[in-house]
Amino acid sequence: MTVTLDLSHRRAAAADSPATVAPETAPARTSLVGLTLDEMREAVLALGVEPKKAKMRAQQIWRWVYFFGARDFGVMTDIGKDLRALLEVHHTLDRPEVIERLVSADGTRKWLIRSAPGVEFETVFIPDVARSGALCVSSQVGCTLTCTFCHTGTQKLVRNLTAAEIVAQVMIARDDLDEWPSTTDGRALTNIVFMGMGEPLYNLDEVAKAIDLISDGEGISIGRRRITVSTSGVVPKIEELGNRTGAMLAISLHATNDALRDVLVPLNKKYPLAELMAAIKAYPGLNNAKRVTFEYVMLKGVNDSPSEARALVKLLAGVPAKVNLIPFNPWPGTAYECSDWKTIHAFADIVNRAGYSAPIRTPRGRDILAACGQLRSESVKTRASVALKERLAAADTPT
C-alpha cells in the first residue's frame, strides 16, 4: 500500500511565517595604527563626519595615535563623545601581539611579534652607553636572500611586512620603554635601523611609507637622519631609496672582491661590486655629513686578513664612509667562526689609519639570543616541534 502525505498546509503556513534571518555579524574592527593622515581622514569620513570637519578631526586623532601613543579612544578629550563612540565601534588602537619579550643583562630588549597566524617577526632595542639607543626593525618575515653567514637567510620568505606592521614595531618599543608622548627630552629610543629580518629594498613601498610616518614631526618624530636602511645591494633601488626617504644608507658588504662576496652574499652575482659601488657614489645627498655605513662581519680565516683590510680601504676610496666591524655571532649549523679580538683590532687599525672610522660593534644581548634571526629561529623550531608531536600523536591514535 502506498501512503501519500499532503504537506501543502505546512508549506502554506511556512510562507506566512517570517523567514528565519541569520544574526548579523558585526564588521571586524580595524586598527588605526599605521594609517597616514590622508588614510585617517578617509576613515573619519567613513564614520559620517562632515567633509569640512574631517581634516581637523583626522589631525587630532592622528596626533593621539602617533604623538601620545594612545591605547584607548577615551583619552582623546578634544574629540566629541559621539565620534569617540563611533571610533570604538569601528576601529581599535591595537598593536600586533607580543608573544615573547626578553630583556638582556646589558639592557638589550627583544620582542617576538605576531600580526597574524604564521606571521611572526622580531624587533630589537639596543641601548647605547649614553641615554640613546637604536631600534632594529624588520621589513619582511623571513628573507629571500641566502647570505651564508646569516641565520635569518636560512628561513624562507613568508611575506613582506606592511607599513603598519613596521610602524607598530616602533610603537611597541615606545610602549615598553614608556616613551610617550614623543618628546625628545631624555628618550632612549633615538634611532631606527632597518637591519632586522628581510631585505628592505625588496619592500621599498612599505618601508618608504613607514619612514614617512616614523619621521613626521607631529607624530613619532624620529628624524630621517636618524633612520638607517641597510641593503645587501639591490642596486636598482638604491637611488630610489634616497630620493623617496632621505634616510641614511648602510651596505651589508662583508667582502672586498666578487669571488668571495658571491659566496657570502649571493646577491652579488646579480649586482657585482663595481655596480654596487657606482650606485653608492650616486646616492642622493651623499657627503661627509651623510656618510654611508659599510657593515663588515668578521669571519675567522675568511675575510679578516690585513690584505682584506687594505683592499677595503681601496674599495672605499672617494666614498664618505664609515665601517662597522661586526664580530660574527655563531649559530647552530654554521660553518663560520668569529675572528679573534687581536685580528679584529688589527683590521680596525688599518682602516682607521686610512682615515675611515671603523668601530667594533660590541656584541649585545647574547644572553637572550638577540643576534639577528636567532629568536625567530627559535619560534620556527618550536612550531616545527609542536607540529611533529601532533603528527606522531595522530599516527598513534587508532582509527
From TrEMBL:
Region (Disordered): 1-25
GO molecular function terms noted in the UniProt entry: 4 iron, 4 sulfur cluster binding; metal ion binding; rRNA (adenine(2503)-C2-)-methyltransferase activity; rRNA binding; tRNA (adenine(37)-C2)-methyltransferase activity; tRNA binding
Active-site residues, as the UniProt record annotates them: E122, C372
Keyword Transferase: yes
Catalytic activity reported: adenosine(37) in tRNA + 2 reduced [2Fe-2S]-[ferredoxin] + 2 S-adenosyl-L-methionine = 2-methyladenosine(37) in tRNA + 5'-deoxyadenosine + L-methionine + 2 oxidized [2Fe-2S]-[ferredoxin] + S-adenosyl-L-homocysteine; adenosine(2503) in 23S rRNA + 2 reduced [2Fe-2S]-[ferredoxin] + 2 S-adenosyl-L-methionine = 2-methyladenosine(2503) in 23S rRNA + 5'-deoxyadenosine + L-methionine + 2 oxidized [2Fe-2S]-[ferredoxin] + S-adenosyl-L-homocysteine
Co-factor(s): [4Fe-4S] cluster
Residues covered by the Radical SAM core domain: 129-361
Subcellular location: Cytoplasm
Binding site residues for [4Fe-4S] cluster: C143, C147, C150
Enzyme Commission number: 2.1.1.192
Co-factor binding comment: Binds 1 [4Fe-4S] cluster. The cluster is coordinated with 3 cysteines and an exchangeable S-adenosyl-L-methionine.
Similarity section: Belongs to the radical SAM superfamily. RlmN family.
HAMAP family: RNA_methyltr_RlmN
Function: Specifically methylates position 2 of adenine 2503 in 23S rRNA and position 2 of adenine 37 in tRNAs. m2A2503 modification seems to play a crucial role in the proofreading step occurring at the peptidyl transferase center and thus would serve to optimize ribosomal fidelity.
NCBIfam families to which the protein is assigned, alphabetical: rRNA_mod_RlmN
Other facts: Reaction proceeds by a ping-pong mechanism involving intermediate methylation of a conserved cysteine residue.
Protein name per Swiss-Prot or TrEMBL: Dual-specificity RNA methyltransferase RlmN
Lineage of source species: Bacteria, Pseudomonadati, Pseudomonadota, Alphaproteobacteria, Caulobacterales
